Amino acid sequence: MSTILRPGAAIEMAHGGGGMATTRLIREIFARHFANPILDQGHDAARLNLPHGRIVMSTDAHVISPLEFPGGDIGSLAVHGTINDVAMGGAVPVALSAAFIIEEGLPLETLDRIAASMGAAARKAGVPIATGDTKVVERGAADGLFITTTGIGLIPEGIEIAPERIAPGMAILLSGTLGDHGVAILSRRQGLAFGTTIESDSAALHRMVGDMLAAAPSIACLRDPTRGGLSATLNELAEAAGVSMTLKEAAIPVRPEVAGACELLGLDPIHIANEGKLICICPGDQAEAVLNIMRAHPEGRDAAQIGTVGASMPPGTPGLLRMETLIGGMRVVDWLAGEQLPRIC
Amino acid sequence: MKYISEFRDPALAQSLATAIAREADPARSYAFMEFCGGHTHAIFRYGVQDLVPSNVRFVHGPGCPVCVLPMRRLDDALELAERHGVILATYGDMMRVPGSGRRSMLTARSAGADIRMVYSPLDALALARDNPDRQVVFMGIGFETTTPATGMAILTARAQGLSNFSVFCNHVLTPPAMAHVLAAPGVALDGFLGPSHVSTVIGAGAYRPLVAHYGRPMVIAGFEPLDVLQSVLMLIRQVNEGRQEVENQYSRVVTEAGNTRAQAVIEEVFALRDTFEWRGLGSVPDSARAIRPELADFDAEARFTISEKQSREVKSCECPAILRGVKQPKDCKLFGKACTPETPMGACMVSSEGSCAAYYTYRRAETMAEMEAAE
């Protein structure tokens, strides 16, 4: 059987033309790697049978450079990123859609590898890619490959995840080490390559979240600290909830390799993107139980309580998020100004 | 982390804090200037002020290269990129600094100028090699720490026969700036926390004439929080004992003579300018480097004509007085209101070493409260 995956073959404009080349691209790469009963229906729109209830929906565009990096690639990242966004709404992910913008000249081998990785990530997560779309743009109009994924999920009865529910005295939990994804990407960037064994933490967190919510339905808020890192995420939550928060620097887990790279580059791990971590804010008396559940999952092995929610304060109060430093001083933990690392996800 | 975490040890920090509290004389106050922006940020990042008594005060110095660069020089760099169409290679710190009319390298880049962020002058050399039909200008900026690297880039360009590489040189010297601060009225300093990285290049000996002349103690301090605390203790002891010496707390890196190979590169490539304009300090004699005439091919100021221009600082911006240590960020009406890291009016808010950025990032709540109370 002939295949479009000849050695040296690359994406041509015809692959996006809607003719035979498009059909073969979809059949031989995407349909092959993503195969699942819903996608295999072959309709323009996927049909899902869902029970009545509350549905969440989330979408995320991925433009990361480089396309493949230690610990993942744009394909698995696009699956994990959207599954996590759905899970942070307290929902069980049901299905994903995926849209591909491909630059003319992208080697078909690369696309095939990324689609395979994406299919594997979806299967491992148990969340099918139910529908998709492919467009090809001229050389220079994109950078290799951009992927947008959208996910829907169902919120179980009795779960209410919302920043407004964050209240004084609650515990702030973090599921593991900070900065792995950002530093892994940085270590492969042109002009900045440095030798390191750090891998991206890119991972789907919905199973861990499911177990956490089953054991502690009173969890107030979940968020994944992606772009902007821990500092942006907690500042956002403190603003939204109108509370102060205090972190303990010594309690925040950071891998020594990541800490070393950050020292060298003048970066702070609390500002760096993560793709497989979550922040959980829950009543203080449940912190230990939730931590134990997190630690039972590989994605939550290094989970720790990193701070507590303080008094209610009007949003807009400067310095809502503070941290006791390693040596025992206090400081504000601010949003990062400007951009630290472009195209990190 | 080996060789880092030891210098952030909480128990050692507490014991140093206890010693400082014991030895600081409650009947007097101590004003120590940390010359370097790197120290300013270490002090704020770790909350060092919380560990010393209230009569020990840090006065923030002008050791932030981006902050002391006068707007005129930034406007000149923008002209190189826009009018002469060069590839302008610069350290990331410069990108958001506002020039005249609040235009920055970032806004110039989005309007089409070819401005690239690099991590080293060698990256700029690579740009020149990869773009043989373009002129590449490296924005040389910084104190003695970064000067040797710029010098090496020029020597390498000469050795490789690169004819499309030049440097827009803004390198400045530390000791003349310190002398200027000490000679200026308005700041009563009891001593200096001396620079870490600058001193690795120029050596502890470089400060001895200055300390002898002005009679103020100096302790060359490392950048870690324990380094800062120990240096404060050493300064307090000098003051209490009436000594005015150059002491070297950062002896694990800094030597008396400094890095003589780096000094030789500086001497080979650069001459002293008679005078140079500093933001905040004004004209300071013998305080900056220019590329030697025999290397004029690599001097952007010799290669390109740069027009005369009137560069105007934002009027109410207090950067100049803050850089002299005469005012604090809270004394500036713009702080935290019109001027934030997102919308900076002055360089002190932009640079990661600027004192306004340090107050804003790490002590905003306290600073804004003090401003309100003063109104």
How would you portray this structure in words?
The complex is a heterodimer of chains A (345) and B (375). Chain A has 345 residues and is α+β, with helices and mostly antiparallel strands. Chain A has two domains: 13-155, PurM-like, N-terminal domain (60s Ribosomal Protein L30, Chain: A, 2-Layer Sandwich), CATH 3.30.1330; 163-332, PurM-like C-terminal domain (Phosphoribosyl-aminoimidazole Synthetase, Chain A, domain 2), CATH 3.90.650.10. Chain A has nine helices and 13 strands. Chain A has helices spanning 20-34, 37-40, 74-88, 108-125, 180-186, 206-215, 229-241, 256-265, 287-295; strands at 54-62, 68-69, 72-73, 92-103, 129-137, 145-155, 171-174, 221-223, 243-248, 279-282, 304-312, 321-324, 330-332. The longest helix of chain A has 18 residues, at 108-125. Chain A is globular. The mean pLDDT of chain A is 93. Chain B has 375 residues and is of the alpha/beta class. Chain B folds into three domains: 5-63 and 181-248, Rossmann fold (3-Layer(aba) Sandwich); 67-173 and 258-303, Rossmann fold (3-Layer(aba) Sandwich); 319-374, no CATH class. Chain B is 41% helix and 16% strand. Chain B is built from 16 helices and 13 strands. In chain B, the strands form four sheets. In chain B, strands 2-1-7-8-9 form a five-stranded parallel sheet, with helices on both faces. Chain B has a four-stranded parallel sheet with strand order 4-3-5-6, with helices on both faces. In chain B, helix 1 (10-23) packs parallel to helix 11 (225-241) and helix 7 packs across helix 12 (260-269). Chain B is globular and about 65 Å long. The relative contact order of chain B is 0.16. Chain A binds chain B through residues 191-192, 250, 256, 259-260, 263, 266, 317-319, 322, 324-332, 334, 337-338, and chain B through 1, 4, 8-10, 13-14, 44-51, 96, 118-119, 123, 225-226, 229, 336, 340-342, 352, 360-366, 368.
